Amino acid sequence: MRADSFTAEEQRLNRIYEKLRDRLLDMRLSNPMLNYRHSAKSKRQLQLVDEVPEQVFQHLATNENIFTIGALPEPEGVPADELTDDFRAAFEHARIMDAEFIAQIEKLESEGRDDEGEIALAETQLRVRLRKKLGLPPRPDRQTVNPVEHARGLGIDPSIELRASSDAGRHRDNLLQTLKWPETLQATLEKIGSDARLAEQEMGLSTLFLVFGFLEWMDSKDSEKKLHAPLLLLPVRLDREKTARGKIVFKLQANAGFPDTNLSLSKKLESMDVVLPEFKSDDASKLPIEDYFAAVTDAIAEKPGWRVRRWLTLGHFAFGRLAMYTDLAPENWEETPVRSDLVRDVLRGSEMSRDDGSGLSGPPDDHVIDLPEIEKKAPFLVHDADASQH
Asked: In which band, very low, low, confident or very high, does the pLDDT at 3 lie, cut at 50, 70 and 90?
């Protein structure tokens, strides 16, 4: 309905309605939809390497393929006694309780050096201490394995900045590559999967998404702090399976054929005179991820230091408020919201009732529930309750 057809009162209520609706979108920089912090040691997120976003999306969303999430193959020379269940359990416990290891990780974080290579070095040193504690023979004296260099030696590109295309035939398998060692990857995916199931049980909504691309941006001209906001979020499902040989594997599949755009980011950028493009395609089988990245790059051309990061991240994002924001859009209503009696009463406030005496006429009067005449009308309760609970 055209805004100029509203009465003055309806225009006033419509402004209130839109302001309340916009409050569902958290514009604070603590919101992960505006400022998502990546951490190599986090067990609530996972970054992929050596993949092509366009191909992953085509196989996952439009072709309904199921991917296996792959660990970085163990380097040769890892002692067999460190591959046992007992040692792995002791190692995971030590990661949490070992004071020296915790101090190392905290120092790396404070210096901004908490990458896979530095964390792997700290874990190797922890293994040496753990072997001594468990009475195992000294670890073979070999050069510390850096996962980045080890990946390169295996022909795996360790960069989290993914390529736009690849050679013919490459990246067409059903494996999503990571830089995590097998035991670390399993612990991370166990946590991610557990949190996803808990969110569905408590909220009825999935919070697990695979993010295609991040916008690297700054909140003001004077700020030098780089923020990273997700661009396209595809709802996914993570399943834990056991192979015939007893090995645990994790399978990833899409829960939808179309990704969600970042509404919070769109609204934030509107206040900075940047219009984030929509993600759409006439052909569902050829959704142009790279075309979208190019359109975003054009939209931010006037913003120095801003750019699109071609990252693929599996993580948790709360979409409950965004779903409410979409549901409350006026175009989704049969009639404009401010012409609904109930909505008008809510926007005006409970102190203002309609002329016929109906509507939100204020909170009901309190009753002394112990009085005989009130007690007869009150329901019989199994448990004690105060007046507000009645």
From this structure: low
